[in-house]
Amino acid sequence: MTNDQTKQLWTRVDRYIVDALIGADEALDAAVRDSEAAGLPAIQVSAPQGKFLHLLARMLGARRILEIGTLGGYSTIWLARGLANGGRLITLEAVPLHASVARANIARAGLAGVVEVRLGPALETLPQLAGEGPFDLIFVDANKDGYPEYFRHALALSRPGTAIVFDNVVRGGRVADAASDDALVRGVRALNELIAAEPRVSATAIQTVGTKGYDGFALVLVNT
Ligand code: SAH
Ligand code: DHB
Ligand code: MG
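Above: inputs. Below: predicted complex with magnesium ion.
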């Protein structure tokens, strides 16, 4: 198969998975539509990935969720719908337009009361979260060169049993290239070194294919 055919197959299977197991959803579909109309990049998690995050939140019985990198709030909506009763989600976003599109999408999904979008570079807003933790689930999906610093902050905002998920840790396989000078690859590799040297956590990474191409999630558990 050519690369194009391979990508088409991944997209077709993602579409099948959505049809078979997920279905259409008015608020999520509208969030994608309005994000695109506002000119946001279409780099939100796929629907199967979003539902995976949602199920993870439910499996954890999460009452506090932190997200770093909101974009239009698509992953935010999936995650917030997985909150236990009375739970809250805080999501951090640096770009004002992204934050305002996200707030509207989140409100339309009926989640304005449980989700708070905090505007500003995450390295400025993270230190203000000290009194709001610990979080049960942390999803990291902002600038990839920041992943090592985000891991340090996430760990400080965790308790034993907290799960920390990082998006985009494979990037078409480029992560395996030790000589890469790509800031994104270097960020993920530095993250993995930090994780490996941290006795308080256990971790893996899972490669994924689909509408977003070939990438992956890292899953970090804070040891109990
Ligand atoms: N989680 C979203 C996609 C996030 S895309 C979803 O799946 O629906 C990455 C987002 O991180 C972008 O909106 C970008 O503006 C934001 N971002 C980039 N650098 C950031 C920083 N330093 N602090 C906070 N957000 C940042
Ligand atoms: C891209 C995808 C992402 O999930 C992300 O967080 C940033 C960029 C991309 O495909 O370019
Ligand atoms: Mg991502």
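The longest helix spans residues 3-22.
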